[in-house]
């Protein structure tokens, strides 16, 4: 099965990293600016007054490299392509000989930008919550013309070669969708579309973060049997194509919640750090509370060595701790994002 360049690690690589106390991935966040208004956005909730500057961001990357990081993922805090220092940071990551993956809403990817991204070997995780214009636009704030811009961005990436596989059977393009009432019946089509077009599919539950905390979280979650049936169909499709994986869906008070990544083990705790736009350090997108500390008080290297998240990671069985638990209460601590 194909992987996304920079995001494909074998179990041996993951276990070795955990044993040796090394990181594999680092998620960073640039300026909190965005042209969309997604109702559940985990970052676009407030104006951050004390954002990291370019030098601080570069230092995080240097420290990450020292700790073994192979891939830096630019995950926000808004639309990364709108950040003033985006290209400078991409160049810096490349100078460090690290892989770079950028989350993007795709709407700003013109032919020229696609070409520049491709030349810089920037892998993309593009947002696609629906093939239907009306549904897609509902989840980006009903902005007129945005759907067409996203489609154009996707086309530009494909035209420039983003879905051509390399020798390691990796693509440069992933599509990411959140499970919503309006798109749950499209999930199978989304998955098959990605598989058939050499795009890496990412399907996830909405986390209880940012704007998603401003209304009843249950409103975003879909009934357990509906999620389970959609995931089962996807699982069967992959099995028929020679790729087997276990179902990891929690029944949370009648609602279906995906644990980890669909079709993959979650390897974040123990091999990944997220550093938010103001320097706070966390394991993953569960970015509530104080986390492990702030890089303005201690370096990332010191925070990692002192907090030792890899010791938790090594205790995980099957790489994702959550999958072995049936009782919601038992995983509450690890998944505050899915309260
Ligand atoms: C914060 S966005 C930043 C990058 C870019 N603006 C985008 O939307 O792709 C990074 C990823 O997080 C996803 N996301 C945003 N809010 C979320 C939430 N509450 N739960 C789960 N995923 C979320 C987005 O769909 C996107 O794939
Ligand atoms: S999810 Fe991405 S595109 Fe949507 S508002 Fe947040 S940062 Fe912007």
From TrEMBL:
<dbReference type="InterPro" id="IPR013785">
    <property type="entry name" value="Aldolase_TIM"/>
</dbReference>
<dbReference type="GO" id="GO:0046872">
    <property type="term" value="F:metal ion binding"/>
</dbReference>
<protein>
    <submittedName>
        <fullName>Radical SAM protein</fullName>
    </submittedName>
</protein>
<dbReference type="Pfam" id="PF13186">
    <property type="entry name" value="SPASM"/>
</dbReference>
<dbReference type="GO" id="GO:0051536">
    <property type="term" value="F:iron-sulfur cluster binding"/>
</dbReference>
<keyword id="KW-0408">Iron</keyword>
<keyword id="KW-0411">Iron-sulfur</keyword>
<feature type="domain" description="Radical SAM core">
    <location>
        <begin position="19"/>
        <end position="244"/>
    </location>
</feature>
<dbReference type="InterPro" id="IPR023885">
    <property type="entry name" value="4Fe4S-binding_SPASM_dom"/>
</dbReference>
<dbReference type="InterPro" id="IPR007197">
    <property type="entry name" value="rSAM"/>
</dbReference>
<keyword id="KW-0949">S-adenosyl-L-methionine</keyword>
<dbReference type="GO" id="GO:0003824">
    <property type="term" value="F:catalytic activity"/>
</dbReference>
<dbReference type="Pfam" id="PF04055">
    <property type="entry name" value="Radical_SAM"/>
</dbReference>
<dbReference type="InterPro" id="IPR050377">
    <property type="entry name" value="Radical_SAM_PqqE_MftC-like"/>
</dbReference>
<dbReference type="InterPro" id="IPR058240">
    <property type="entry name" value="rSAM_sf"/>
</dbReference>
<keyword id="KW-0479">Metal-binding</keyword>
């Amino acid at each position: 099965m194909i992987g996304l360049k920079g995001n494909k690690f074998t179990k041996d690589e993951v276990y070795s990293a955990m044993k040796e106390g090394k990181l594999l991935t680092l998620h960073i966040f640039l300026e909190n600016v965005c042209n969309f208004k997604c109702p559940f956005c985990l970052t676009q909730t407030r104006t951050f007054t004390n954002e990291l500057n370019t030098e601080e961001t570069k230092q995080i990357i240097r420290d990450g490299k020292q700790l073994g990081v192979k891939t830096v993922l630019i995950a926000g805090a808004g639309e990364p392509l709108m950040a003033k220092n985006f290209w400078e940071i991409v160049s810096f990551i490349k100078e460090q000989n690290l892989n770079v993956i950028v989350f993007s809403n795709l709407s700003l990817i013109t032919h020229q930008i696609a070409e520049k991204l491709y030349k810089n070997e920037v892998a993309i995780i593009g947002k696609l919550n629906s093939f239907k214009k009306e549904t897609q636009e509902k989840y980006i704030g009903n902005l007129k013309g945005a759907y067409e811009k996203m489609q154009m961005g996707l086309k530009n990436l494909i035209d420039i070669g983003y879905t051509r596989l390399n020798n390691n059977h990796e693509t440069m393009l992933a599509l990411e969708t959140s499970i919503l009432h309006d798109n749950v019946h499209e999930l199978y089509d989304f998955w098959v579309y990605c598989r058939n077009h050499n795009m890496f599919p990412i399907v996830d539950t909405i986390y209880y973060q940012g704007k998603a905390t401003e209304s009843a979280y249950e409103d975003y979650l879909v009934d357990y049997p509906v999620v389970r049936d959609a995931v089962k169909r996807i699982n069967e499709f992959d099995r028929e194509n020679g790729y087997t994986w276990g179902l990891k869906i929690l029944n949370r008070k009648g609602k279906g919640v995906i644990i980890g990544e669909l079709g993959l083990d979650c390897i974040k705790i123990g091999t990944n750090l997220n550093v938010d736009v103001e320097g706070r350090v966390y394991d993953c997108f569960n970015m509530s509370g104080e986390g492990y500390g702030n890089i303005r008080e201690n370096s990332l290297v010191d925070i990692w060595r002192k907090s030792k998240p890899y010791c938790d990671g090594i205790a995980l069985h099957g790489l994702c701790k959550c999958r072995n638990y049936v009782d919601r209460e038992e995983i509450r601590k690890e998944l505050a994002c899915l309260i």
